[in-house]
Amino acid sequence: MAVDSRAWQEAAMDLGVEVIAPGVIDGFEFVAILPDFGSPGGAAVLTYDDSLRGPAANAAEARGYFVSIVNPQIYRVFQRERFIETLDDWGWFGTENAPEWYGGHDYPRRKG
Q: How far apart are CA 109 and CA 112, in angstroms?
């Protein structure tokens, strides 16, 4: 995988959010999966240079994930402010209160 999942693992520890990095959906490997961001189903992260990004994105979207295809040069290393800005943009959909650093909008999760 072009973007090292360790940056997202570091984001999880530093920002106090759930991140599965790397993650797998329907046999496709993703840089990271963030259950509380992007949509009620969570966010799945790919990079521009993932060779199977089209089929992987389609599989994730079919399962209700928001898919973000990120620039591998920018997301190779954890940079706190950049990752916060990205997660703010994706939106919080968690069932608990958003992290204190989160400045975006809280979106309700759908039940069932």
A: 9
Within a domain: 102: no
Give the span between the Cα atoms of 111 and 83, in whole angstroms: 28
Residue 23 lies in a domain: yes
User: How, if at all, do strands 66-70 and 43-47 pair?
Assistant: parallel
- The tens digit of pLDDT for each residue in 64-91 reads 999 999 998 899 999 999 999 999 999 9
Domain contains 95: no
Domain count, the chain: 1
Instruction: Give this prediction's pTM.
Output: 0.89
| Cis peptide bond upstream of 22, omega within 30 | yes
Strand partners, 24: 29
3-state secondary structure of 108: coil
CB 46 within 8 A of CB 75: no
